[in-house]
Design brief:
NADH:ubiquinone oxidoreductase subunit 5 (chain L)/Multisubunit Na+/H+ antiporter, MnhA subunit, transmembrane, mainly alpha, cell membrane, two-stranded antiparallel sheet, about 5% strand, membrane, globular, ubiquinone
């Protein structure tokens, strides 16, 4: 099977599945089988595709629009890292969702699975986009299809959270469209090129970069972040999608695409764009973690951790050197596995024990040892501690700050990692070493395994990726991506 066919299979599997989910909505077992089969098909198309991409990017053009404007795909090493993250985690979240949604007897499950599949389709489209135009189409589709997921519960709080979600992300999409148009006006193309292609007056390019940042609000940097904690009113599988699989990863992915494949590191350095991004990201890392310390709602505390971790990626991107760039792009899958572990644990705790507050978790580690062991692994990874994959990506980012002689950035990432310990480790200590705080109701026991097995697997892979970071071709793809941008580097 040739590489172009693998691209289409990987991309079309969630798209076709979304239609089949609507057709099989009256038959839950069949509907959910479609979801799982499609996720497996996508994954087993993407894994061999990654081998081909290491040799050379794979292109598929669907149609020509205007000179320099095509609706087309060009799968490169950087895009494959995002695609592998999304495809592998989709399998596990799909299994988890069966237990979660059925245990709580959630309404509108067909809409949920349909929207989820379209979101994965959008994530693959973003990962495979050849140019800003194709990227923009899928980026906006991702916003639209995830709104029903955020507002799924249809309570006043959920509707309010969904409205805030759109209030931030729709204007952000308009900013991205403006940036796309200016880029095309300046250069006559929007095709991503390793090392960049943009040219024009310095002040125009600096202003354009700010517009791009406004277009990537999905990266949840401060002060344009509040949509993300508010969106935690959504079901836990949606939170996992927002934080680990697709939405926020699309934001940081877009920022990196623009810096390294539109501007290029040399132009970005001459314009001091790295300094601008580093200030925004450094501020976000510290403040997000301080807010997390005082947050009692478990999912919201984890959400603030996401805001912090995304800015680790942005700091890595801002250093404009090979080591930090490698760390930034490796942190996309590593963070994905660690963060999805934390959210799946939070959902399992809520379904099985009925507790969703940090202050309610005393002693629960004894009753739910697998869940809290997995949570501990995720927390270690967020803090950058071995033997979890987060140590590797944070190590590369730290080396990149030293290579850039940016000791302020180094101090910021070290302080942020210490604050991770401050708000995660007391949860672990209290869960395992305090007496239980009253009784809890073991709800949803029938579907417990559907939730516990996926979170155990994501926790296990968070460790395996530390021991062998190339098990999903992550390290090799990162090396190829660095070499594409710099012609060598790691």
């Amino acid at each position: 099977m040739n590489a172009e066919t693998l691209v289409l299979i990987a991309l079309l599997s969630p798209g076709i599945a979304s239609l089949l989910i609507l057709l099989t909505g009256r038959y839950p077992n069949l509907r959910e089988s479609v979801t799982i089969i499609a996720s497996i098909v996508s994954f087993f198309a993407i894994v061999p595709l990654s081998k081909e991409v290491m040799k050379a990017p794979v292109e598929v053009t669907l149609f020509h629009i205007a000179p320099g404007l095509d609706f087309a795909f060009r799968v490169d090493a950087f895009g494959m890292i995002f695609a592998i993250t999304s495809s592998s985690l989709w399998i596990l979240v799909s299994i988890y969702s069966i237990g979660y949604m059925r245990a709580l007897n959630e309404h509108a499950q067909t809409r949920f699975y349909f929207s989820f599949a379209v979101a994965i389709f959008s994530a693959f489209g973003i990962a495979f986009s050849k140019n800003l135009l194709t990227f923009y189409v899928f980026y906006e589709l991702l916003t639209i299809c995830t709104y029903p997921l955020v507002a799924h519960e249809e309570t006043s709080e959920a509707i309010s959270g969904g409205r805030r979600y759109l209030a931030y992300l729709l204007p952000s999409g308009a900013a991205l469209l403006v940036a796309l148009a200016i880029t095309y006006w300046l250069t006559g193309t929007t095709d991503f090129q390793a090392g960049g292609f943009l040219n024009g007056p310095a002040e125009v390019l600096r202003i354009l970069f700010i517009i791009y940042l406004l277009g990537f609000v999905k990266a949840a940097y401060m002060p344009l972040h509040s949509w993300l904690p508010t969106a935690m009113v959504a079901p836990t599988p949606v939170s996992a999608l927002l934080h680990a699989v697709a939405v926020v990863k699309a934001g940081v992915f877009g920022v990196i695409r623009v810096i390294y494949y539109v501007y290029g590191p040399d132009l970005a350095s001459s314009l001091n764009l790295g300094a601008i991004l580093a200030v925004v990201a450094g501020f976000t890392m510290i403040v997000a973690n301080i807010l997390a310390i005082g947050e009692d709602n478990l999912k919201r505390r984890i959400a603030y951790s996401t805001i912090n971790q995304l800015s680790f990626i942005l700091v890595g991107a801002a250093m404009l050197n090979p080591l930090a760039f490698a760390g930034a792009i490796m942190h996309i899958p590593f963070h994905g596995y660690m963060k999805i572990t934390l959210f799946l644990c939070a959902g399992a705790i809520a379904v099985i024990s009925g507790k969703d507050r940090v202050s309610q978790l005393d002693g629960l580690g004894r009753a739910m040892p697998v869940t809290f062991a997995a949570f501990s692994i995720g927390a270690f990874g967020m803090s950058g501690l071995p033997p979890v994959a987060g140590f590797i990506s944070k190590w590369f980012i730290a080396l990149g700050t030293i290579d850039a002689n940016n000791l302020i950035a180094l101090a910021a990432i070290l302080a942020a990692s210490l604050l991770d310990v401050v708000y995660f480790f007391p949860i672990i200590k209290n869960a395992f070493f305090r007496e239980p705080d009253g009784q809890y109701d073991e709800r949803g026991r029938l579907y417990h395994l559907y939730m516990v097995v996926p979170l155990a697997i994501t926790a296990l892979f968070s460790v395996i990726l530390f021991l062998n970071p190339d098990i999903l071709n992550v390290f090799e793809l990162a090396r190829v991506a660095v070499n594409n941008v710099w012609g060598g580097g790691i």
